[in-house]
Amino acid sequence: MHKGFGFLNRRFILPELRSAVRAVQADLVFLQEVQGDHALHAERTVDWPPVPQYEFLADAMWPQFAYGRNAVYPHGHHGNALLSKYPIVQYRNRDVSIQGPERRGMLHCTLAVPGFGDLHAICVHLGLAEAHRRRQIDMLCEMVGEAVPPQAPLIVAGDFNDWRCRASDALERCAGLQEVFQMVYGQAARTFPARLPMLRLDRIYVRGAGAHAPMVLPRKPWSHLSDHAPLAAEIDL
Fold first, then answer.
1. How much is the pTM?
2. Which of 125, 129, 157, 220 minimizes the number of CB atoms within 10 Å of its CB?
3. How far apart, in whole angstroms, are the C-alpha atoms of residue 237 and residue 228?
């Protein structure tokens, strides 16, 4: 989300982002770098919404939403968010920051899917340093082992910053998670930078569920709205 701003923070594009996200018509939306609050931006930015960004994005299309605050600073905070067309019966945000100024988190939601039962969803944003990511992958495995029943379907999605493509083997080994692009196409999707994707940073993992038609969403309008190309997939429960 880049906190609702375009490249170099020169233009506020949150209304355009909302239109683009709505056009996908996804049942679940996993978001990173969502601005929960920022007093100075609210005063100085034209069209700054009167509600938090995740609530502005959810609008009438996603009646349920959850937010996990990761980074807190004098004028506000930002983090991960999940928008859902299904009831969110509970959620918890886990701080997985390691050290230094970089703040990271994992937002775990339990959803009640009508006619099916519980679905677990974890929205992640991992660190830039490989040593940090290794520890954060271990924390993710611990979270899955402690909080997700073995028989319950699970989706884990977000920005893994895993440019060396080492997370998938570890997550399959410790948590039984499979990446949907690897399942269908043999390798994760290129997503960064959005204008000319080279690195495979963003992922959708599943356990106890199937996946069909994973895709990188078209460059227009997304390459003008985010530095990461967004991913979509059909998940079968």
1. 0.97
2. 220
3. 27
